Every structure is written in C-alpha cells, then in structure tokens.
C-alpha cells in the first residue's frame, strides 16, 4: 500500500475537505485528488462520494480512516521513541565494574544519573577485573570501571579517573594507631591478608620488596573486605586497604590509620571502553555526567 497516498487520504478524512487537506499539506488539490484515486484503485474500494460541494466518507472509507489514525499515531510514538533513544533518555546501559568503583563510586553516580535519565535501565555487574575486561571485549557491557590496573588490551582504551590512597589501618586502641611508623616495624605485626591475586596483597608485597623491609607477617587470610575490617575493629592485626573502603570507619573512630614512611601507593580507577566502538547515547550521557563533576 502506498503510505503517502494513505496519509493524504487520512488528512482529507480528518479535515473533511480536499482543499483544507491540500492547504495543510502544502500541495495542490489535483495532486491530493490524484493520489486518493490511485489508492482507491490499489485497494479496489471507493473511499469518498460527492456530497453537495464537498465529499463524504463511504463506510469503507470510514473504516480505513480509523486504521490510518492508529497507524499514524503509532508513527508519532515511534518517532518520539527514536528521538528519546538518540538523546539517551531511554534505553539500557550495561556497566561492568570491579569491587571498589562498584561499591564506593557508582552508587553516587548512579543516583545522579537516574534522576537525570529515569527512563534508562541500568545494569551493573560487580566482577573481577578480568571478567570486566571480557564483558567489554565481548560486547556484554557498554562501559567499565576497573580498579587496580592502568594497562589494557589493545581492544580497550582506559581513562584514569581517580587514584585512591592505599592505607595501613589498625584498631583504634592499637599501639600504632594514628602514629608515624617505619615500614620495617609495621611488617612485624600480624597482617590480615586478602586473597591471592588481590590488588592490596600484591601491592603490599611489592612495597616491602622495594624497600627491603622484609616479608609481612601473615596472621590470617580473609577473602572478604567487610570481614577484614570487622576483624581489625575487633582488635586483631593490621591490614592494607584502599582509602575509599575505610574512610567512613576512620571518620567514626572504629579503626585508625597508621602513617607509614615510604608507603606511597595509589589504587588507580579507570573508565574503560572498546577502542573502535561508537558509544550508545546512554553511555555517553553517563560519561559526560561524570566529567561534569569534580567529585570521585
């Protein structure tokens, strides 16, 4: 069916006049009449009959006008939907994130983003850095926030967003609480180590090796952050963590920082996207929102 002719027919049906429809559509009356005649021949139905100086819809014409109204109303809805997709005000945003940004940065960003774009569905996967990279490479995520590394596959490009300080923390009643201590001294204390392969564990060992401070005294290994902090709060050992993970505990006086000479270690957090990819409007809006604020 010729949709252009159907649109002209519908305009005539709505206005009740070829003259008014032609004026509304900014085309000539003969062009409107010609297209409607072609439509009648195409569908083998008479759509209008003369009535005085005007025209009257036939029963077939009235039924077709109802369906045309549905069609062109849907067309407007689709146009609006496409415009919203283009603007990123609707759609879906998939984020892959490692533990630190997922727990300490994304909640604030997500809250702000959803207030700006309530129609966009957001899905966040909190996973280790290798799985986050895999999701990006395999088009299972649109953007990634990855902590602990700054070098990525050639398939990805990373932008450093933030560098978080790594801290030694102890119970508030520990002898080293809020004190300045040599690295060689603190490594003699029993440490709560995180799991093999964790950023904090690798950086602690590298720091000790760099300064020939000796091997840290591993008192216990705990895989979870919350469990690690709770153990320190209960009075056991020292742990080496990212500041974002413990700032609120330090502020409340639950645990205390130890000022360790030579211990200047940063935990980088990067925004990652595919190198040769065109970002979706939703992803671009999220990134622009982050760039527009100085907060991390």
Automatic annotation (TrEMBL):
GO MF annotations in UniProt: DNA-binding transcription factor activity; transcription cis-regulatory region binding
SUPFAM superfamilies, sorted:
Periplasmic binding protein-like II, Winged helix' DNA-binding domain
Task: Identify the keywords attached in UniProt to this record, alphabetized.
Answer: DNA-binding, Transcription, Transcription regulation
The record's InterPro entries line, in alphabetical order, gives: LysR_HTH_N, LysR_subst-bd, WH-like_DNA-bd_sf, WH_DNA-bd_sf
Matches recorded under PANTHER family:
HTH-TYPE TRANSCRIPTIONAL REGULATOR, HTH-TYPE TRANSCRIPTIONAL REGULATOR GLTR
Q: Which family does it belong to?
A: Belongs to the LysR transcriptional regulatory family.
Q: What is the official name of this protein in its record?
A: Transcriptional regulator LysR family
Q: Which organism is it from?
A: Bacillus paralicheniformis
């Amino acid at each position: 069916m010729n949709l252009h002719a159907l649109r002209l027919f519908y305009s005539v049906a709505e206005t009740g006049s070829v003259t008014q429809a032609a004026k509304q559509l900014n085309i000539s009356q003969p062009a409107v009449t010609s297209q409607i005649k072609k439509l009648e021949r195409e569908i083998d139905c008479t759509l209008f009959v003369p009535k005085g100086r005007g025209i009257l819809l036939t029963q077939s014409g009235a039924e077709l006008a109802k369906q045309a109204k549905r069609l062109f109303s849907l067309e407007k809805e689709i146009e609006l939907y496409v415009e919203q997709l283009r603007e990123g005000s609707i759609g879906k945003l998939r984020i892959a994130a490692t533990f630190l940004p997922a727990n300490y940065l994304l909640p604030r960003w997500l809250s702000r983003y959803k207030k700006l774009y309530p129609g966009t569905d957001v899905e966040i996967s909190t996973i280790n850095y290798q799985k986050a990279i895999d999701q990006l490479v395999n088009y299972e995520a649109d953007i990634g926030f990855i902590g602990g590394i700054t070098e990525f596959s050639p398939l990805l490009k990373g932008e450093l967003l933030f560098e978080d300080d790594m801290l030694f923390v102890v119970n508030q009643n520990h002898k080293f609480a809020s004190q300045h201590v040599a690295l060689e001294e603190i490594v003699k204390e029993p440490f709560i180590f995180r799991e093999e392969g964790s950023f904090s564990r690798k950086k602690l060992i590298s720091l000790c090796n760099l300064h020939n401070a000796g091997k840290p005294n591993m008192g216990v290994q705990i895989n979870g952050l919350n469990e690690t902090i709770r153990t320190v709060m209960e009075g056991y050992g020292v742990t080496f963590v990212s500041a974002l993970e413990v700032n609120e505990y330090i502020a409340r006086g639950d645990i205390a920082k130890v000022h360790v000479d030579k211990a200047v270690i940063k935990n980088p957090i990067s925004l990652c996207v595919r190198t040769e990819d065109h970002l979706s409007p939703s992803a671009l809006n999220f990134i622009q929102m982050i760039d527009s604020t100085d907060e991390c």
